[in-house]
Amino acid sequence: MSDLTLTNFAGSVRTSIAGAPRRGYVALVAIWTRRSRSRRHLKHLDAHLLRDIGVTEWNAQREAERPFWD
Fold it and tell me: In what residue span(s) does the YjiS-like domain sit (predicted)?
């Protein structure tokens, strides 16, 4: 039986190709979607809101430009 390892920010998720890998893919796509949405929202926050959460404008811009898979 072959194994496929998907890695995300929480570590490795091991799923079997012969088994039910869809759950692994669905979880990975959900993580990517959440990251993309969060970064898109972060990109549009005003300077005073960024200060409220303790993030500089430079850091917010840098985070917003990262790809969803990273």
Answer: 28-57
Q: Where are the beta strands (DSSP E) in 1-70?
A: 3-8, 11-16
Instruction: Read off the pTM.
Output: 0.60
Cα four-point dihedral sign 26, 29, 34, 37: negative
Residue with tokens 């890695």: 7
Judged on CB neighbours under 10 Å (0-12, 13-18, 19+), 25 is middle
Retrieve residue 33's tokens.
């979607």
Q: How confident is the model at residue 5 (pLDDT cuts 50, 70, 90)?
A: very low
Long-range contacts of 40-49 (CB under 8 A, 24+ apart): 40/64
Q: What is the pLDDT of residues 11-41, one digit of tens each?
A: 444 544 555 677 889 999 999 999 999 999 9
